[in-house]
From TrEMBL:
It comes from Penicillium malachiteum. GO terms for molecular function: GTP binding; GTPase activity. GO terms for biological process: positive regulation of cellular response to amino acid starvation. Keywords: GTP-binding, Nucleotide-binding. PROSITE patterns: G_OBG, GTP1_OBG, TGS. Residues 287-362 form the TGS domain. The lineage of its organism: Eukaryota, Fungi, Dikarya, Ascomycota, Pezizomycotina. This is Ribosome-interacting GTPase 2. It comes from the Eukaryota.
Length: 363
């Protein structure tokens, strides 16, 4: 383990004094070593890649990631029925503590995690375990202390980036296919701004991918994007909401500035300011919808929601209820934001909206 860490350090040092083509190559090597570092290794004290032993439950999982004492546990205790110990000293939380956030009939698992520090991705503290847990989540809630320096955010992002977590990013629009023969075929759909054939060629050769087809569809793609495509089995694209806590202790001007940053929310758990707003944002960022079902002649059941992904249709809702339901489907009645008039009679292709009430009529 030490060896890989040393190799990573060597490459990072070399990168600081290197030119474009060679830089791409070094980045490729670095990505490979970092993936090795995360491979589970047997034996005591190795750290490995395993997370905490908490099974997933509910409709989605949100991981609270942040430096020590930013207020992660305080937040969990506020929004769920679970009490997670909070205190003024670092590393109060030593393991993963799950809680359930009930949100209009949806159940969201919130995972309170130990604080992480710089070097977490290389195994400092419980960093590796925390990051593994974060990797299993549908949304990372990065909890930040509004009274601390702005660098805290970039430091945490770098730790997550080093283990292949990409925040608020789509997978690069680059096609790569390994072939048995025929050499390398590299094509650009539009003239690239940050890439050229030689850079890609160098990295592919280093990965011993001598026969393959590459099509770069995005003119802004970088060599980092290309490496992400090669390493796609080790990459995870996760949405992230940055939440600045302790706003009770900063100036209004600064607060205003923080609140304007993208993917950002602000709160004070202590004064109970903005907490509900953060909960609403969590729901929004998860990109899910709640549908309530109604039987003919009865009131809809709002205590339990059917959870579907954003952009779902009546067909997706049927599949969620029962896999053979659509075979007997005749039509559906819809009340809510997606209905042109209430109720509207619709077919399987109708796009539903959050909080719609639906009634399925079978043949
Ligand atoms: N001023 C202020 N203090 C807060 C706020 N929220 C939490 N705290 C305090 O911050 C300290 C740390 O809170 P915790 O909830 O233990 O923080 P944590 O992020 O879970 O910490 P670790 O588990 O050690 O990583 C406690 O003393 C809290 O009372 C807030 O909104 N404002
Ligand atoms: K603490
Ligand atoms: Mg804690």
């Amino acid at each position: 383990m030490v060896n890989i860490t040393e190799k990573i350090k060597e490459i990072e040092d070399e990168m600081k004094r290197t030119q474009k083509y060679h830089l791409g190559l070094l980045k490729g090597k670095l990505a490979r070593l970092r993936a090795q570092l995360l491979e589970p290794v047997g034996g005591a004290g190795s750290g490995g890649g395993a997370g905490f032993d908490v099974s997933k439950s509910g409709d989605a999982r949100v991981a609270l990631v942040g430096f020590p004492s930013v207020g992660k546990s305080t937040f969990l205790s506020k929004i769920t029925k679970t009490k997670s110990e909070a205190a003024a000293y670092s590393f109060t939380t030593l393991t993963a503590i799950p809680g359930v956030l009930e949100y209009g009939g949806a159940e969201i698992q919130i995972l309170d995690l130990p604080g992480i520090i710089e070097g977490a991705s290389e195994g400092k503290g419980r960093g590796r375990q925390v990051i593994s847990a974060a990797k299993t989540s549908d949304l990372i809630l990065m909890v930040l202390d509004a009274t601390k320096k702005a660098e805290q955010r970039a430091l945490l992002e770098a730790e997550l980036d080093a283990v292949g977590i990409r925040l608020n990013k789509e997978p690069p629009n680059i096609y790569l296919k390994a072939k048995k023969a025929g050499g390398m075929k590299i094509t650009f759909q539009t003239p690239p701004k940050y890439l050229d054939e030689k850079m890609i060629y160098n990295v592919l050769r280093d990965y011993k991918m001598l026969n393959c087809e590459v099509l770069v569809r995005d003119e802004y793609a970088t060599i980092d994007d290309f490496i992400d495509v090669i390493m796609k089995d080790h990459r995870k694209y996760i949405r992230c909401l940055y939440v600045y806590n302790k706003i009770d202790s900063v100036s209004l001007e600064f607060l205003d500035q923080l609140a304007r940053e993208p993917y950002t929310a602000v709160m004070s758990c202590e004064l109970d300011l903005g907490v509900q707003g953060v909960v609403d944002r969590i729901w929004k960022e998860l990109r899910l919808m709640r549908l309530y079902t109604k039987r003919k002649g009865e009131e809809p059941d709002f205590s339990e929601a059917l959870i579907v992904r954003r952009d779902s249709t009546i067909e997706d809702a049927c599949d969620q209820i029962h896999r053979t339901l659509k075979d007997t489907f005749k039509y559906a009645m819809v009340w809510g934001a997606s209905a042109r008039h209430v109720p509207q009679r619709v077919g399987l292709g109708h796009a539903v909206a959050d909080e719609d009430v639906i009634s399925i009529v079978a043949k």
